[in-house]
Write a structure and sequence with these properties.
The complex is a heterodimer.
Chain A lengths: L3 E4 L9 E8 L21 E8 L2 E6 L10 E7 L4 E9 L4 E8 L5 H6 L2
Antiparallel strand pairs in A: 1-2, 2-5, 3-4, 3-6, 6-7
Chain B lengths: L1 H6 L12 H19 L24 H8 L7 H12 L9 H5 L14 E2 L6 E2 L1 H12 L10 H12 L14 H13 L9 H5 L6 E2 L2 E2 L10 E3 L4 E3 L1 H11 L10 H13 L9 E3 L1
Parallel strand pairs in B: 5-7
Antiparallel strand pairs in B: 1-2, 3-4, 5-6
Chain lengths: ~120, ~280
């Protein structure tokens, strides 16, 4: 029902501050609007959305009725370690949406040189 | 008018109205508008908006909308495209077929959206693309009905329309479609509602000027179904037209009414040569 799209830079190098863009498909019904037949649409917004990277919460947002439908979340992370990005969100109906994405971080030239 | 305002001691708020010559020219303009609206339509092909003046609605939106529509990731119409693509492949109904089973891949739909609304041969009625998809789903797929303006119907319509992306609009107004075209033209140029306005007064004569905070567009249909920011969802041309009826405070025909198809046909003829652009975003 609720799906999401994630955009990451094509190449992320260690130490970079990179932008993540998450577009969640969700009606975000505010509870104030009526449908085309004039019946009040029950409130259904995403209550809680978080991003977990390697078991550590790195981003959390609690949207309310003021957030638009199909919300776009943009935030920045500093690249330290490769791992798995895990997004999870819950709406008023109790629906839980999930998205998993592998995060690959390339070592810098310096750390490459230092390795051997 | 000049005298009157001074007599009751109200300073003129609009300096443009204060000069005698300007007032005269406004009178002339009004007379001209009235004349134009009274003119009999000797030639059906006569264009109120010349073809070289056509502009997509995108030309009248702000930079934010331009950015959002141009963004290959954040464009809110894209999730509907995904959904449409999924539904295109989904087997439904007693026929055990999907759209893809008969029509193949999306490129078989190339140019289809540029030809609608058109006459349905079986029923003789004027069909827009939504009607065609609904009809196909019920009579051929033998599946459950998709109500007008339902998310599924709009998603598939958007998906089918996207095959014609960048192609110029060219509808036929010959044969049985002619009477529909004329009816649409009549509605477009007829004053209606409590505001007593005709579509043509805003969209042919005053596009580019401001209506409250927004610029008046030409009312072009080339981007529908469009994601409308105000409604926070994908919307059909029919819904947009209904909203215009609300704007001039006129009686809105019921959903699926022939009038809406007639206006759509007129609008598509009026937009001849303009390219289809989906998925689009509108205010």
């Amino acid at each position: 029902m609720s799906t999401a799209r994630l955009q990451l830079p094509a190449r992320i190098v260690e130490g970079d501050v990179f932008k993540l863009r998450l577009l969640v498909q969700h009606p975000m019904d505010s509870g104030f609007l009526r449908d085309l037949d004039g019946v009040l649409i029950k409130r259904n917004v995403i209550r809680h959305l978080q991003c977990i990277l390697n078991d550590k919460e790195v981003f959390r947002v609690e949207p309310t009725t003021g957030t638009s439908a199909n919300p776009l979340f943009e935030f920045y992370l500093r690249a330290t370690k490769s791992g798995e990005l895990y997004f999870r969100w819950v709406d008023d109906k109790g629906y839980i949406g999930e998205l998993r994405q592998k995060l690959v971080i390339e070592p810098t030239n310096q750390s490459k040189a230092a390795k051997p | 008018m000049h005298m009157l305002f001074h007599a009751i001691g109200i300073p003129l708020a609009i300096p443009r109205l204060s000069g005698q010559t300007n007032f005269f020219s406004i009178c002339c303009q009004c007379a001209l508008v009235c004349l134009l609206l009274q003119l009999p339509w000797a030639h059906a092909q006569q264009r109120l908006l010349p073809l070289d003046k056509l502009q997509s609605g995108l030309a009248f939106t702000g930079p934010e909308i331009l950015d959002l529509q141009g963004d290959d990731f954040a464009n809110p119409g894209l999730p509907y495209m995904d959904k449409g693509s999924k539904l295109w492949r989904q087997i439904a109904g007693k026929s055990d077929k999907s759209c893809q089973s008969c029509h193949g891949e999306l490129n078989s739909m190339k140019g289809v959206a540029t030809r609608y609304p058109s006459i349905d041969k079986a029923s003789g009625r004027l069909f827009n693309l939504e009607d065609r998809i609904r009809n196909c789903r019920q009579t051929r797929q033998k599946a459950s009905e998709w109500p007008l303006e339902s998310e599924e119907l709009l998603a598939v319509t958007l998906y089918v329309t996207s095959a014609s992306n960048g192609m110029p609009i060219k509808v036929s107004i010959e044969g049985k479609a002619k009477s529909h075209f004329e009816a649409g033209q009549h509605i477009f140029t007829k004053r209606q509602g409590q505001m007593n306005l005709a579509c043509t007064q805003c969209h042919d004569q005053r596009y580019g000027s401001k209506l409250f905070t927004d610029k008046l567009s030409q009312g072009q249909p080339n981007a529908y179904p469009a994601y409308r920011i105000e409604w926070q969802r994908l919307a059909s041309l029919e819904r947009r037209l209904r909203f215009c009826y609300t704007g001039v405070k006129a009686d809105i025909p019921p959903w699926g009414h022939e009038d809406m198809r007639d206006i759509s046909l007129y609008l598509m003829w009026r937009a001849q040569g303009l390219n289809i652009e989906v998925p689009s975003v509108r205010k």
